[in-house]
Structure formats: structure tokens, C-alpha cells
Amino acid sequence: MNLMGNSFCNWDALQVQVTAMKPLVLHEKVFAKELSSKRLHLRLADLGQARALWSAIKEDRKNLGTSWNYLNSLIETQEFLKKRSKKNPGPEMTYFIYNKKDVLLGSLHLHSFNYGDHRLELGYWLSKPHQGFGYATEAVQALEKEILRLGFHRIEIRCNPRNQASVRLAERSHYVLEGTLRQDTRVEGGFLDTAVYGKIIGADDEAFTC
């Protein structure tokens, strides 16, 4: 669909068509256990992936990665996955990203579900040895199809504006910078800003083709 009004996009018509069929409140639906793209498999978190995750975390720390700092052993990783996979849908859903050789590359996290407003937040992690190959962008595109199937209308990405990898991923995936929350996150030694990126599923992808 490419809605045009002379030399510019007809945003009012686009918005009506995108939102016309949305129910008032979404019903909670079960997330697919596996998703696929050209190079990747996405698997919903479960206890069976504990060893693969812990190995990826240890490898990432060798390269000065700082994610998953609350997990410090295989046992802690198992307990985390046991809790995370207890309910579908739960308050946070995690997909692990694998390549075709079944190597765990990273993860995608969905949280802050608002079924009344049809929106959620998306976070991501890619281990340092696997960055720079477009895996995260491809995984996000695959997950967005599942989010659309579940009926959501809006996705938010919140990140440190100095984290250039996260910023590039948001922009490559057609998320729009909507503003910056100044010094809203407390860290050791001070406060950090948070950049807020938003995407209206379908509409913002369409806007980049206008």
C-alpha cells in the first residue's frame, strides 16, 4: 500500500486504514515458540537453552560485554529461564537468536505490554563477536511480524543515545526518534538520558517508501 496525495503522503487516510480494524482492547494471545528468517531462528526462552545462554554470556564477557550482569553461574541462568518461561504470555517475553549452525547470537525482549493501548517495548542484546553482520536488524524484522499477528499497533525502543549500536538498529528498522528523556536513569556516578524511538507497525515502514 502506498497512499499518496500529490507529492506527499496522505497521513490521515493512512492512519484511518491502519487503525480501522483494531479492537478496543487486545486479547492476550500465545506467542509463537519459534520464528524464522533467511539466516536466523528465534526461539522463545525455555530451560533447555540455559547452557547455550550461559556459554554466550561468558564469551561476551571475554570481549568486555556488560549485559546479563545479574547472571553469574549456570544455576542462576537456569533459574532465570525457569521463571521467564513459566507463562505465555508473561510480563516479559524473551526470544533467543540462533544462526543456521545453531549458535546463540543474542536475544530480543518484549516487555511493558499495554493491551489497552496496543503497545509494547522492545529491547535487544547481541554478543560482541556477532555484531556488525545485520543479525539484530533481521531478527527485529522477524519478530515484528509476530507482534503484528498478535494485534499490537505501536512498538517503543528506549536506549542510551550514546549507544550508537542501539541507535543505528532503531533507525535502520524505521523507528522514529520521538524525544529524549533527560537524566531519567540513575547509574553509578550520575544520571543518563534515554532516547525514545517509536514505530507504528506498518505505517512507519510505509512512510519510508513515500
Structural account:
It is a single chain. The chain has 210 residues and is an alpha+beta fold. It has a domain at 32-111 and 123-129: Aminopeptidase, CATH 3.40.630. The protein is built from six helices and ten strands, in the order ββαββααβββαβαββα. The chain has helices at 11-19, 50-62, 74-84, 135-149, 164-172, 203-207, and strands spanning 4-5, 8-9, 34-36, 40-44, 92-99, 104-114, 119-126, 154-159, 176-187, 190-200. The strands form two sheets. It has an eight-stranded mixed β-sheet, sandwiched between helices. Strands 1-2 form a two-stranded antiparallel ribbon. α2 crosses α3. The radius of gyration is 18 Å and the shape is globular. The relative contact order is 0.15. The model is unreliable at 1-8 (pLDDT under 50).
- Identify the overall geometry: globular
CATH class of the domain at 32-111 and 123-129: Alpha Beta
CATH topology of the domain at 32-111 and 123-129: Aminopeptidase
Summarize model confidence as the mean pLDDT.
Answer: 88
Q: Largest sheet, described in full?
A: 8 strands, mixed
In spatial order, strands of the major sheet run 3-4-5-6-7-8-10-9
Q: Spell the H/E element sequence.
A: EEHEEHHEEEHEHEEH
CATH superfamily of the domain at 32-111 and 123-129: Gcn5-related N-acetyltransferase (GNAT)
Would you tell me the structural class of the helices and strands? alpha+beta
DSSP strand (E) fraction? Answer: 25-35%
Tell me the radius of gyration: 18 Å
